[in-house]
Amino acid sequence: MSPRPRLTNERRREILEAAVRVIAERGICDTRISDVAERVGTSAALIMYYFDSKDELLTEALAYAEDRFYLHSFHELAMLESPTERLVRLIELSVSPAGNTVTEADWTLWIELWSRSLRHPDAAKKREALDRRWRTTIEDIITDGVSAGEFTCSDPHGFAVMFASLLDGLAIQVILHDRDVDQETMRRISLDIAARELGFDLPTSATAAS
């Protein structure tokens, strides 16, 4: 039997990008392989040739979307020298995941991944790894802020776990269109709690936007 042809990185990215778009639009339960194939301009059979199951494709697509968001955020944060500026920017990116363009797609995909993690071990492992990486990003900012004298915090890891959970909870309410929690409310609460818990004054640009 001849070996399976290698799936190139570019083709894999195209398939995962298409799956992400379909999941964001229709939800994971209503996403069909044929829908993804149509977006890519290929056949469902070819997609299933490279991905062993629909479950594997969907899980990989969700993880891919979160990797993409993380890398975008990492590059933006790396350009800022002040830990305070990095933390404020991290909050802004969480409220508006695409940067200056407000979008719910990334948070919608996160909710899909959380839901899938309840019953799919592979999704659960990926969710855990992605959440750990996100908390570590927050923890590193806090640790740098303490070292620079910008923050006061005796437990950066504990703060990171709490603050990541706060962002997650608020984002769920935003996605569900809760009357009491819109994106601006999420932004204001997150900034206020960070400033109060870490003992710093918000930059003028952040307070002005509030």
Describe what this molecule looks like in 3D.
- The chain has one domain (63-209): Tetracycline Repressor, domain 2.
- The model is unreliable at 98-102 (pLDDT under 50).
- The longest helix is centred in the middle third of the chain and has 27 residues, at 121-147.
- The chain is mainly α.
- The chain contains 10 helices and no strands.
- Alpha plus pi helix count: 10
Kindly report the oligomeric state of this protein: single chain
State the CATH architecture: Orthogonal Bundle
| Uncertain residue segments | 98-102
Q: Quick one: CATH class?
A: Mainly Alpha
State the CATH superfamily name: Tetracycline Repressor, domain 2
Helix-residue proportion: over 70%
Number of domains: 1
For the largest beta-sheet, the strand count, sense and barrel status come to: none
Query: What is the radius of gyration?
Result: 19 Å
Class from helix and strand fractions: mainly alpha
Shape: elongated
* Tally of strands: 0
Mean pLDDT: 86
At CATH level 3, the topology is Tetracycline Repressor, domain 2
Could you spell the SSE succession in H and E letters?
Answer: HHHHHHHHHH
Strand content: under 5%
The N- to C-terminal Cα distance equals 63 Å
